[in-house]
Each structure stands twice: as structure tokens, then as C-alpha cells.
Structure to design on (493 residues):
């Protein structure tokens, strides 16, 4: 008799991907990936460079649309709605499924404007007072308010790297997304700034569906409850994070996370 | 198994396995020598067993230090993590096994001092041999990551328990018939109990090895014989 692996069941998926395939021209980058994302679990994508984890992440809010040669097959839904359907408004989709990138990329504008820009173009604020509330709420949720409340008119680019990244998270939060995709959000940050982002991810869980791509396996272990291991465009193993890191089922997963890969 | 990209990590894991193998070998030798000393009433050999226990204790400390270092510096994952955690737990158990062997050896002079010829002693060497083999196999299973061998050790514990029941009954009967031997028989009973505990500890080691090798824990066993005895 053996211990069962912990349950993987996702009761209320926010997003579902079914048999997703991505091609760059002739080359197939993603080979039939199916996965669910919900609000209660942070999902981490791990795998060696070129394994497809970032490519797959970018299919979740159609960032690959900007790559001319990219073609996506299969189905991805947000609240049951096909995000690749012709009726889908991509700008709206990217507000609902926000993204934070590897390198902090604040707009060369004030801290206030960095947050206010999204709500303004999406028409989320009725006036200045409304916008002030949104800016404060977003910066608080991003764990940045106390550090910047007295200098909201300073340039966002004048902040430290870690602060800039939290500003970018605040900017994503400001448009009230449902899912936040993070593509190696800490790889340009020092350990303390990284810890702050990880703590922030922990606090945001439950309010947003969070998917994080990371090269740092310890980070995946720390911040996620579900881990997906990608290799050569395949989803090799998907499981409860504590299972993946203590008792992976697949040989390739084990070799990767124990540092035996390649 | 494939090697780690970082070679120093492999070297540390190898060193860990080497230390545990050495510790196991010493514990097994301690059991064997303690039983031999008992059989031959060899006090010098018994004293050696007692002295050698310090080396087992030192090995435990060395493994603990190495495990803490590996966890801190290498952040082991998956089977590596299970291996080092198992190693940490195994050495504290093997240290206990060494203590039991030492305890047996310490009783040798007390029994040898008496002139009585004690018949029940005849079962103890076989019992000690089975327990010693269990220790050996449990640690071989760790070295080879052999879950099957670990399971076989767990199953063999029943043999030691049966031995204990048998020795217990024999000694009680013997004491009733020869009240003058009660003091020696009491020592022999403790020795039998020590061997029985060695079997239990070897079983615990085997369970940890099983976990390290498979990632699955064995269900709790029923410890038949001895518990009935203790009721």
C-alpha cells in the first residue's frame, strides 16, 4: 500500500488550456499542453531554456500574436470563453490577463502616471478622486505604497529595480485583472527585492490567478502550489509543488530539479 | 543514476554514503563481537566493543554536520532531499543500535563472574545474528537504494520478535527452576530485549530507506510478538 499523491483537482478553473500547440513557422515549440489555472493556486512553470515555458505563458494572453510566424492550435479559455475566438477583444483580454516581465519596464513617466495610465485608457476612473483611490489601492496591493506615497510625481524609472518591478505589478493590478502572468519577474532583482516580490505573490494569491515562469527552482518551490515542468515543448509533469520537489514521477523532472539535467 | 552537473555535490553525497556504510559496518561488528564475547565469556572483546562505540558516535556527529552543510549549500531536491533526510535519521538510529551492542557487552563481565552454566544462552547468538544481518541489509539497501531489500528487512523483524518470545519463556521457566540464577537470567533477558530493539531499529532504518528510494512511506506495521509479551 502506498501513499497517494495529493489531489490535483482544480475545482473552479479560471483559465483552461487544452491540447495547445504553438508553431514558429515550421518549428513546433509547444506540443499539446493542457493545464488549468485558478485563483487559489499559484502555478509555476519551470524547465530549461528553450523548453517552451515562456512561449506557453505568452499564449495565455495572446502575446504571441505579435510574432508574425507564430501559430497557436488547441483551445484556451478564460471563464469558459475561447480567447482565440474572432470576437475576443485582445486589448480587453490583456487587461484581464495581465503580464509582468523579466526586466522591470515602467513607463518613463511619474509613479502616479504609471499606475493611472491603464485605468484611464480602459475608462475605469470617473474623475481625479476616483483615480487617486485606484492608484493608492494598486500601490498598496503591490506593496509599494508606503515607500512611494510622498513622491508619486517622481519618475517611475528613478525607483530601484525591485521597486520598479512592484510598480509594474501595481500597474498590472490597476486595471483589475483576473489573471497575472509573470515571466521571470525576479531574475533582475537582488535577493531582498526578490523576497518582497515573492511575499507579494503570496498576498495576491486568491485574488488573482497567478502563473509564474521562473528559472529559479527554489523560487518555484517557495511561491507556487502547482508546478509544471516543461521540456522540449512538452509538459512533462504537472503536479502539487511539494510532490514535484520531493517525489517527482518523471525521470526527466527528477534529473532537472536535482541538477542532473544535460 | 546520472551525475549532478555540479561535481562537488556528487562528491558530498558519495562521502555521506561512505560514512553511513562505515557506521553500519561498525554497528554490525559491535553486535557480532558483543554476542561473541557473551558466548565465549571474553571480557577483553567485550571491553573493545564498549570502547569502539565512541567511533560510532563520532561518525554520527560527522554525518549530521555533513547533512546540514549539504542542505545549506546545495538545497537538495527530490531523491537527493529524501536521501539526506533519511541519512540524518538513519545515523541517529544506528547510533542507538551501537548503544544496544555496547549495553550487551557491558553485561558480559557480570554474567562471566558467575560459575553457573546457563542453558538459555544457546538461543541468543542466533537471535543476535539475525538482528545483525538486518542492520547490515538495511544499510546495504540504503547504499544501493534498494527498496526490495529494505522490505525484506522489515519482514524479517518478526523472526527476531519470535526469538525474543522464545528466549523470554525459556528464561522465565529456567528462573523458576533455578532461583539461584535469577540475577544472570535477568541480564540475559535484558540482552535479549536489546537484540529485539536492535531488530526494531533496523526495521526503522529499512522504512527510511524505503521512503528515500521510492518517495512512499510504508504503512504502520503491527508489532506482534513483543507487544503481547509486554501486556
Amino acid at each position: 500500500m502506498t501513499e497517494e499523491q495529493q489531489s490535483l483537482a482544480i475545482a473552479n478553473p479560471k483559465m483552461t488550456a487544452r491540447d495547445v500547440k504553438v508553431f514558429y513557422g515550421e518549428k513546433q515549440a509547444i506540443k499539446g499542453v493542457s493545464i488549468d489555472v485558478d485563483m487559489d493556486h499559484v502555478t509555476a512553470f519551470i524547465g530549461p531554456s528553450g523548453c517552451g515555458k515562456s512561449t506557453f505563458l505568452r499564449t495565455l494572453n495572446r502575446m504571441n500574436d505579435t510574432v508574425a510566424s507564430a501559430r497557436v492550435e488547441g483551445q484556451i479559455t478564460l471563464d469558459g470563453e475561447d480567447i482565440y475566438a474572432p470576437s475576443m477583444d485582445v486589448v480587453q483580454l490583456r487587461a484581464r490577463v495581465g503580464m509582468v516581465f523579466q526586466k522591470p519596464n515602467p513607463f518613463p513617466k511619474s509613479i502616479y502616471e504609471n499606475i493611472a495610465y491603464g485605468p484611464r485608457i480602459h475608462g475605469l476612473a470617473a474623475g481625479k478622486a476616483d483615480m487617486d483611490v485606484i492608484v493608492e489601492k494598486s500601490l498598496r496591493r503591490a506593496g509599494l505604497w508606503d515607500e512611494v506615497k510622498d513622491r508619486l510625481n517622481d519618475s517611475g524609472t528613478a525607483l530601484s529595480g525591485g521597486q520598479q518591478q512592484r510598480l509594474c505589478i501595481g500597474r498590472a493590478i490597476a486595471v483589475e485583472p483576473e489573471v497575472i502572468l509573470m515571466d521571470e519577474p525576479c531574475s533582475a532583482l537582488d535577493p531582498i527585492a526578490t523576497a518582497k516580490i515573492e511575499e507579494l505573490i503570496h498576498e495576491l494569491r486568491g485574488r488573482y490567478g497567478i502563473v509564474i515562469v521562473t528559472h529559479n527552482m527554489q523560487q518555484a518551490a517557495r511561491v507556487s502550489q502547482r508546478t509544471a515542468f516543461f521540456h522540449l515543448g512538452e509538459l512533462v509533469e504537472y503536479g502539487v509543488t511539494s510532490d514535484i520537489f520531493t517525489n517527482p514521477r518523471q525521470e526527466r523532472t527528477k534529473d532537472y530539479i536535482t541538477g542532473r539535467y544535460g | 543514476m546520472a551525475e549532478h552537473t555540479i561535481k562537488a555535490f556528487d562528491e558530498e553525497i558519495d562521502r555521506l554514503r561512505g560514512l553511513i556504510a562505515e557506521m553500519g559496518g561498525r554497528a554490525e561488528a559491535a553486535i557480532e563481537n558483543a554476542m561473541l564475547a557473551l558466548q565465549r565469556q571474553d571480557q577483553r572483546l567485550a571491553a573493545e566493543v564498549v570502547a569502539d562505540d565512541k567511533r560510532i558516535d563520532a561518525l554520527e556527529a560527522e554525518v549530521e554536520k555533513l547533512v546540514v552543510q549539504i542542505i545549506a549549500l546545495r538545497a537538495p531536491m527530490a531523491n537527493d532531499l529524501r536521501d539526506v533526510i533519511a541519512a540524518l535519521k538513519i545515523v541517529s538510529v544506528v547510533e542507538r543500535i551501537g548503544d544496544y551492542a555496547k549495553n550487551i557487552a557491558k553485561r558480559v563481565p557480570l554474567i562471566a563472574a558467575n560459575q553457573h552454566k546457563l542453558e538459555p544462552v544457546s538461543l541468543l547468538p542466533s537471535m543476535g545474528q539475525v538482528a545483525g544481518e538486518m542492520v547490515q541489509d538495511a544499510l546495504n539497501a540504503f547504499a544501493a537504494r534498494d527498496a526490495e531489500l529494505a522490505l525484506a528487512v522489515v519482514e524479517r523483524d518478526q523472526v527476531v520478535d519470535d526469538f525474543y518470545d522464545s528466549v523470554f519463556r525459556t528464561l522465565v521457566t529456567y528462573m523458576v527452576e533455578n532461583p539461584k540464577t535469577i540475577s544472570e537470567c535477568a541480564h540475559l533477558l535484558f540482552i535479549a530485549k536489546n537484540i529485539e530493539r536492535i531488530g526494531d531499529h533496523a526495521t526503522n532504518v529499512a522504512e527510511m530507506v524505503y521512503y528515500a528510494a521510492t518517495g512512499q512511506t510504508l504503512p504502520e506495521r503491527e508489532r506482534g510478538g513483543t507487544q503481547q509479551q509486554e501486556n
